[in-house]
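Late entry, written up from scratch paper. The run itself happened at the end of the previous shift, but nothing got recorded in the book at the time, so transcribing now.
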Amino acid sequence: MECNGPQCSVSQVESHNSCDCPSCTGQNPVDFIELTWHKAAMNAILEAKKDRIKSRIEKQMGDALDQGADAVVEYIHKKISAAITTAGSEQELKNKLFSILKKAC
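Output as recorded:
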């Protein structure tokens, strides 16, 4: 079974409140059913291939992937912590300015 590009693609496009799929445009519903089964089969084959590749990548690169994930999480944590500290400092300044203005008025 070979995928032949655009005809494997089944999408609903809104145009004047109607679907452009073969079933809704008056084309042969059997052709549409065959097309959807074909698309489902192609998706299933792709998922099966992905599963096999994922397990091999995990075996060969698992430690490196873990280290990379740790580095990304550490970076994000530092960035969020810095944003929280900055926000706290800004709020502290606003409170002081408000207090000064309140005393002046």
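The chain is about 70% helix and 0% strand.
(Scratch paper discarded after transcription.)
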